Amino acid sequence: MSSPPWEFHLPLAPGDLLRGGGPGRYAVQEVLPAPELAAPLAAFRAAFRARGALAVLQHFDSLYSLLHHFRAVGAAVKEDALELMMQVVSCHSNDLPAILGDSGLSHADRTAHLNVLKMNCYLLTGLVEAFEMETCKSGLVELDPSGKNKKNHTKVSGFSWEEEREPLIRLLTQLLQLDLRRLWSGLVVEEEFVSLMTGSCYRILENPSIGLQKHRATREAVTHLLAAALVHYDHMFSATLKITQMLQHFEHVAPVFAQAVSLWATEYGLKSMVGELLREIGQKCPQDLARDAAGIKGYAVFITELAEQIPAVVLSNMSVLLRHLDGENYLMRNAILAAVAEALLKVLNGDKLEEAARGTRDQFLDILQAHICDISGFVRSRVLQLFTRIVQCKALPLTRFQSVVSLAVGRLKDKSVVVVKNAIQLLAAFLSNNPFSCKLSCADLVEPLKKEVQKLQEMRNQHRATAAATITPEEEWEAMLPEIRAVTQQLLQPLQGEEEEVLEVEETAESTSERITGLLRKLNYKGAIHLTQKALCHFQGLEPFSGPKEGNEEATILDVLKRLYTGLCPGENTEDTPGGSSSPMTKDVTLEEQPQTDLVKQEMLVQYLQDAYNFSVKITEALSLVSKMMYENSVSVVQEAIEFFVTVSQFSVPQAVLGVRRMLPLVWSKEPGIKEAVLNAYRRLYLSPSGDSERARAQSLVRSLSLIMVDASLGTIQCLEEIISEFVQKDEIKPAVIQLLWEQFTEKSQCSLLERRAAVMLLGMMARGKPEIIGSNLDVLVTVGLSEKVCEDYRLAQEVCNAISKLANNPKPALGKKNAPFRLPQTHMLFGSLSEAVSKGFAQPSGDWVPFMEVAVTLIYQLAEAAEEICAHILQACSQQALEKLQEADGQKAEPGASPSRVSDGASSLPTFLLMHLVSLVGQVALQQVVYLEESVSTELRRRRMLREEQKAKQHSEGSTKKQRPQSTGNETTMEEELGLVGASADDTEAELIRSICETELLDGKHLFSAFVPLVLKICNNPGLYSDPALSAAAALTLGKVCMISSEFCDSHLRLLFTMMEKSTLPGVRSNLMVAAGDLAIRFPNLVEPWTPHLYARLRDPCQNVRQTAGLVMTHLILKDMVKVKGQVSEMAALLMDPEEAIVGLAQNFFSELSNKYKLWNSFLHFTFRPYSCVPQLKGSG
């Protein structure tokens, strides 16, 4: 093959080939016009078939012209050119292994194939870039929402650039995997060629759609091509610069490069690539990065995802990144902290870490803990999330538990909602994964802790005493030394004719040492010294007889004897020891090891209990903070708080019950997410009880629900009722639970009195969702709950009445419905039992009779036909008993037909409780009579009227249709309009009728109420005579109830009512009258309006209960617009500084609701706080 007279040099820019680069360099001779490219392309194809890849040497200009006019060339020509070039490169790639393996390759052939390789690769990569740019600009792949262009294009030509990219990249990869250095005479492949091959890869990665799942194969092909360039062509430096540059400018490439670098490090062993990239990022100036928000986001995502995939490799290069933790941009801090957390989770985890790894782990944990208090809320939030993962994976050392929990509790007060939310999640994770106990009650832990601490102290004292009593060999030697020294000095003097014991040395130094030690323990000092002297001469240089040859002989002997006695104790026998006692050293070995082990175990136990107690204290502290967050404005924080208390409840923390109760009112939230969170919380806490059988699970559920109702307020009961009714409507409460409740109520199942009450209450709650639960067992309720034993437990009877009342509490039917209200006949056994129970208990002193009576009277008016007759009978029976008691007290006999009006004469001689019962009964009947007329009677009149009007309309419509069918539509419209006017007028007529009954009939001399009004007024007007607090409070409340009947009566007695409210010394009277005044303000607003200052005055009452009652009443009146918002509302603002927390919460809730009601809040504040200087009590209360 003849070598061409030129050499092809890869241009820096396409235009460089149009200009002659000098002698011996190839230059394009002619750029063909776009319309004429088809024929040269066909000629190139023919030449390729004839000569193979070498054909490009003569036809390069044709393909270059196509690249030059790429936008103007037709799609078919471009596609043919791409297909042809792929064939050419593939052919050359297949031929190159044989060519490169030919040892006799001439210089001319080598140069020719090198030019062919460069030309073909230049043209093919040029087409790749051209197609890629065209795709990005035209939106052929992703930007056309309809997809019509793509579909039509594919349908016409069958060409899809997306499908062509992957095989093309694999072809280039195959080419790079060859040993192309032989074409460069065995030298390094020129950098321009490597950049040419990899440039197309980077161009493809710049396409934003490359990250989609459908392009996964293309990404993998690009990754392997770049790996070939890195492994075989020293592309690392260029790749590092290019990747960091793309990360800075193309946000979407960060996950792609993270996956690619991970692959290079694991499959190709290119771990140094990770270090180069991280070092390049780490050397970026933090101030410059702070100004480049887009670029820093790419770096952050890259670091985060790379750490997730190859944490060990990233860990080895982490030091170059830590400087950015002091930078301004929070994204980079978050990324590095995430990388630190991944290292802790996947590398620095476990108990068998080396000392260096443990130090790195502690350093990283210190970094994370420090950034919990980062200046950026996003960083604080992210660190809390990372700690949550670490805790969930059990990667946090126990020594760090207390410090991290303390930091998390501190973040509960953070100003950022997201931080607070994540702090709650972290604390929940700590609870779920705590290593201490399934029970974290401080009360349960403090006693065992004290007990074990005391035991540890005793063990330590005992150990000290044992250690003090034990004589060590050194101490024994010191005691023996004076005598041994004296014997030594005596023996070293010249002999005075005494015959000494002849002792010979043993064969070895060890056996001789044992013999000398035995002689010392037998107190044979002379023998030991003589033997030592001989041994020093016989075993010179051997231990322990390696003493100096010259010097003080006495010191040498004593030194040898000391070392033998204190440091060597083998070979002694018990029988050789005087008295049969063993050495103290032997005792230490046998007796001290076990106590020492027990002491260590005890110290570990105490430390465990101490850590558990400290953890419990912090969780308890967190409970009080989280419970206050349940009423935050942020829905997510409220949901996390609810979830937290569900988690805490599983660990028997006593305060958790308070949180579970506190979340109850949230069931009324207008936010669906919060309401559903409460329902799910109670569903998890109570509807999934433990137990082997259905019966056991039912018992567990009933027991849990009953605990909530212990000492629960009325509001708590109502909230729980809403939740249980929701569960019943969705059939989430099993029939076995309802069956068990009935068994407890009827005492078929053994239970306490409190459990019976709870069973009735739960049945009533369930009946709200399904009234048939009570309706089908009404006779059982009456027979068992309202039997002759009702006087023994009025509270049970009261709950029975509440349960039965659910039959009347069904949602009101829509206007126009024909269904009659649910009523029971007057002769039903329920009303007989109620009448008997009320009358029978009237004359008995019981504090529970009045609440039962109120519920019973209410139930009669709700369910009974002719309820007023039943209650009149009860009033007559009770007043008759009062008359009999009065006659007994006065020693007189009453006439059989005595009038009840005589009760007011000499009433002071009646027992106080009897008078209070009578007054309370009168007030309740009066109030329920008004409610019965205003609601039940009015609704029934409206229903009957509408039925009549509907029947008349139907008859009129039928008659009109028969007479004039064509004009029926117009007649019906006119008729409906007339009926509408008639209906509106009728409503007014019915309301006026009921109003006249209340005003003129209920309190006239013919009605029963008139007989008791003088008695009520007498008690109210004579507080000195009737000084009993309960009686005075009952009379005051009854006065307010009677005032509800008639506006005339109300107007004439308002002065008495407000005078009592202001002057009474009894807080119960003032509270009752405040409630009554609130009701009167709604019923007769015009009458009460002049007395508004007296209502506000109760907000400054010295009694806490009165202030709280007044706050509740005024809140309702103001929010319902029954009292206008004026300057006097500043009295409500004064409650914000009340010493009682409950009153402060009430005032805060009032202003929160008021701010939602009045959007012009700033102008309202002016009127609210302007009178502050005029409130003298404000300084004192503050």
From TrEMBL:
Belongs to the CND1 (condensin subunit 1) family. Residues 76-239 form the Condensin complex subunit 1 N-terminal domain. This is Condensin complex subunit 1. Coiled coil: none annotated. It is found in: Chromosome; Nucleus. The keyword Nucleus applies. It comes from Apteryx mantelli (North Island brown kiwi). Residues 1069-1158 form the Condensin complex subunit 1 C-terminal domain. The keyword Membrane does not apply.
